[in-house]
Amino acid sequence: MFAGRTLVIATKHQKEKVLAPILERELGVNCILEPRLDTDVFGTFTGEVERKNDPIETARKKCLLAMDIANCDLAIASEGSFGPHPTIFFCPADEEYLCFIDKINEIEVVVRDLTTDTNYNHIRITSEDQLTAFASQVKFPAHALIVRKAQADSSDMVKGITTMEQLHQTVHHFLNAYGEAFVETDMRAMHNPTRMKAIEKTCFKLVHALHSQCPACKCPGFSATASKQGLPCALCHFPTRSIRSVIYACKKCAYTEEVSYPNGKLTEDPMFCDRCNP
Questions:
Q1: Could you tell me which of 84, 78, 167 has the C-alpha nearest to residue 118?
Q2: How far apart are CA 171 and CA 182, in angstroms?
Q3: Which of 134, 138, 137, 156 is nearest to 147 (CA)?
Q4: What is the pLDDT at residue 166?
């Protein structure tokens, strides 16, 4: 269904470095980029452009715009969100989405991956003495940093900082100018190897979904679309917030199937139980 066709990767942040090899090998497509595409119009991590839609809709719009500009009928786009993990409190998480659209066969497949393997972090700096420890903690300089005048202020900002000399010079300038500096991790894929690995992992999930056919109509993309919480605690058997089952669905014929205990676990560790570990 996909072999020999051209697929446009909707990115300006070098995500093709991990996506193209997998897609070309596993699907037989020829991946291209569209240099006229500016995905930042759908929102930026640093807030200059507000993201108006949820991650799935944003990725979908990236695909459609890329296909329109490149005159292509096959596209893939990525979108990520960063913040506290939904169940492991006080732990930062990276939530990655990939959207794959095939206009000819009217197929749209979306996959998601949630991981705590992220360096997502930020700090308000009032002295350069605070800088070294933070930089080491967030894997700088292998992972770039961003410096701005304040957390919610994008009026003065330096992105993509990758050397200690540049970092100290930038923070020194901001301290002199504003009395403080807000330093944060640069979560753009080309400046964040850890995030790039998360996107790669999500791509393998996408390929698996595309190779999975609907039991009813044989359409590719039979994949998980929802999940149900309630995996029982191993100690008190109280339902936890951990996943008990996953719902697989076909967008073509609306066939669904519920798979219990998708992670191979029948119970959850009491440390994740709201009753045993409130």
A1: 84
A2: 9
A3: 156
A4: 97
Q: Are 194 and 80 in contact (CB under 8 A)?
A: no
pLDDT digits (tens, 9 = 90+) for 44-84: 988 889 999 999 999 999 999 999 999 999 999 999 999 99
User: How far are the Cα atoms of 46, 75, 97, 118 from residue 20, in angstroms, in the given order?
Assistant: 27, 11, 16, 22
Q: What angle do CA 95, 98, 104 make, to 5 degrees?
A: 160
Return the number of other C-beta atoms located less than 10 Å from residue 33's C-beta.
17
Among the listed residues 75, 97, 92, 82, the one whose alpha carbon sits nearest the alpha carbon of residue 44:
82
Measured CA to CA in angstroms, residue 263 lies from 143, 234, 244 at distances of 31, 15, 9
pTM of the model: 0.86
Report the alpha-carbon distance of residue 48 to residue 154 in Å, rounded: 6
- What is the C-alpha separation between 183 and 216, in angstroms, rounded? 52
| Token reading at 41 | 């119009």
- Scanning the structure block, which residue is given the tokens 């640093």? 46
Count the Cβ atoms, other than its own, within 10 Å of residue 35: 9
Q: Which two tokens stand for residue 108?
A: 């749209």
